[in-house]
Amino acid sequence: xxxxxxxxxxxxxxxxxxxxxxxxxxxxxxxxxxxxxxxxxxxxxxxxxxxxxxxxxxxxxxxxxxxxxxxxxxxxxxxxxxxxxxxxxxxxxxxxxxxxxxxxxxxxxxxxxxxxxxxxxxxxxxxxxxxxxxxxxxxxxxxxxxxxxxxxxxxxxxxxxxxxxxxxxxxxxxxxxxxxxxxxxxxxxxxxxxxxxxxxxxxxxxxxxxxxxxxxxxxxxxxxxxxxxxx
Length: 231
Ligand SMILES: Cc1ncc(C[n+]2csc(CCO)c2C)c(N)n1
Known about the structure:
Enzyme class: hydrolase
Pfam family, one: TENA_THI-4
Low-confidence stretches: none
Function: Catalyzes an amino-pyrimidine hydrolysis reaction at the C5' of the pyrimidine moiety of thiamine compounds, a reaction that is part of a thiamine salvage pathway.
Bound molecules: ligand VIB
GO biological process, one term: thiamine biosynthetic process
InterPro entries: Haem_Oase-like_multi-hlx (IPR016084), Thiaminase-2/PQQC (IPR004305), Thiaminase_II (IPR027574), Thiamine_Salvage_TenA (IPR050967)
């Protein structure tokens, strides 16, 4: 069994939980509360900024120049495809500069991005790839599942379109193939560590939906901007 297949099997219950999370289901149905999506877009912009940095770190850690160049290209892609999409959403949702300036990463967004840096710190390029692969792969599977949903909210339809597209499929396949190539060359101990990064990232992907659905916040905050909305 390919290393990627072993990983996919190990996280199946976690990914199933993501597929059935109310955030994902309601996004597909178009019934998701816009406050949750708005919150998600802000937290995800923070996440993507760090994701691009981790991709660039991975590029710096790669053994060959082709992979370095490819990872740098992927980092640019995160900016061009996803962060720009979020910028459009922010405009459409009327998120103000003031709101952006007072942004605070939520506990889960902070923990998830920290996990990716920690994986990078663990050793080699394979660690980085294993930690970032669920982001590509899970979103691809969600995109495939939601592809046929026609939520009557244009923002949700645009989100689904982004992840259900063919360019995205190629991106995911390329990273899976890369991970399998690396798996052939590293030790059993390395593979175990990579498996753990993948598993933890999968758990955080689930937590990320949950964070947005519940408008998660730190237990003690000077000014809780979401307190009024939760009340
Ligand atoms: C929490 C969270 N996880 C995964 C993605 C999806 N994603 C993030 S970077 C990347 C690769 C380059 O586009 C992909 C697919 C997201 N947006 N937010």
